[in-house]
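Lab notes, practical 5.
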Amino acid sequence: MSPTLAAVLLIGIFVLAAALIWLGLGLSRRAQRLEEAPPPPEPAEPAEPGGDVAAPPGPPRLRDRMGKTRAALSRSLGALTGRRTIDDEAWDSIEEALLVADVGVTTTSRLLDELRARAATARVDDPEQLVTLLRQEIVDDLSGIDRSLHHAPDGPTVWLFVGVNGTGKTTTIAKLAQREIEGGHAALMAAADTFRAAAADQLTHWAERVGADVVRGQEGADPGSVVFDAVDAAGGRGAGVVLVDTAGRMHTKVNLMEELKKIRRIAERTPGAPQEVLLVIDSTTGQNGLAQARQFAEAVGVTGVVLTKLDGTAKGGVVLAIEVDLGIPVKLIGVGEAAEDLVPFDPAEFAAALFA
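Output from the prediction step:
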């Protein structure tokens, strides 16, 4: 081997050795820093109720079931995203969203006036913040109302159910009867729809299914006599709650509405009864449900509304129209077929599900 080649190899060996030493020292220092570093923070515990964490966007069941109404709102309110100022177009987007959700012209105008005032007071200039204010405005408008189902302090409780055909009246009665039975109140169903034999058969089927008693008359019998017999039988059979199913009738039929008034008068023979007159409305009818509510309220003094099929419509805004325009509380909403899908109406949960 030549002296020159030997010198080159020797230099290469020294360079490689130095590089290995430097790498080893670097890894050693890194290991030392990792050992001395503080441990990573533990995952944060869930915030206690009342903390500073933002409220969840509505209960999962209600939020999931109201997707159609929420989507209808979102399509119009999406125009606010990225806007720099609150101008006429921003207000038009909010108005469109409310009308598409079937809030109704009158209630929409009122909400917009209230929202403008709230935005001015809070000095809001970001269009996207209007959605938050709108949500709060809806909660405020719907809050402070008694939504409980009232029971008689003594004697049987009588709940009268009214509405047009196809709203889900009979299944609503069955679900409430099941709830009352589970709560320790024996239930009796009165089949006061005597015009259709199938109606009494259907109610009897549901009574057997949920464990309730039933009183029915002959086909074509006077509905008032069925109500009288049911209330009279409640005491002897130990029933705490009498749920009266009436024939579905169009709110525009004067003679049928007069008959409904008669049924109520017979129920009133029991002191304090009926404790509730519940109008069952199919929410997919939208503003037509408002017309129904108005006519039934004038005829029989509706105490509350059960809004069914809210999971199958984009017209959930009718809740606002019924409450704000007519002053009739929505007490229960139906968001599915199961018994647990008939839930008490809560304004905050409703608004959260709309804007989740």
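Observations recorded by the TA: The chain has a mean pLDDT of 84. The longest helix spans residues 3-36.
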